[in-house]
Amino acid sequence: MPRSSTLTTIERGILNDVASGLNTIQIGFKQHRSPETIRTHMKNILVKLKARNRAHAVANAYNTGILTCPLPHLPRTQPVPATSLPPRRGPAPTRPRRTDVSAAQAGSPLSRR
């Protein structure tokens, strides 16, 4: 995998926006660049990261440390919270089976023929 020094500042910004879920036109508006310029930078990013597509480029960037997650889901210093559900006791409750004939139809005179 390539190092982060291979990407320019503009390419890192574009890759960060791609990781945020923005498309080419949205990135162009945000960075005040034309969509064609964003496409050119994205092609360079794909080549430099040896990625097949945008998602693969983002995955490679996270794996190499070019991009980092700004807000981790759970801090490593805190324990994982326990579930708030009480523990199960005994077998799981069963639901009644559904049949083709409902109870209302079983007692009707048309079903006896």
UniProtKB/TrEMBL annotation:
For this UniProt record, the keywords arranged alphabetically read as follows: DNA-binding, Transcription, Transcription regulation
> Which InterPro entries does the record associate with it?
Sig_transdc_resp-reg_C-effctor (IPR016032), Tscrpt_reg_LuxR_C (IPR000792), WH-like_DNA-bd_sf (IPR036388)
- Annotated region Disordered: the residues are 72-113
Family annotation (SMART domains): HTH_LUXR
Could you confirm whether the keyword DNA-binding appears in this record?
yes
Q: Which PANTHER family match?
A: DNA-BINDING TRANSCRIPTIONAL ACTIVATOR DEVR_DOSR
**Which named protein is this?**
Helix-turn-helix transcriptional regulator
Source organism of this protein record: Amycolatopsis nalaikhensis
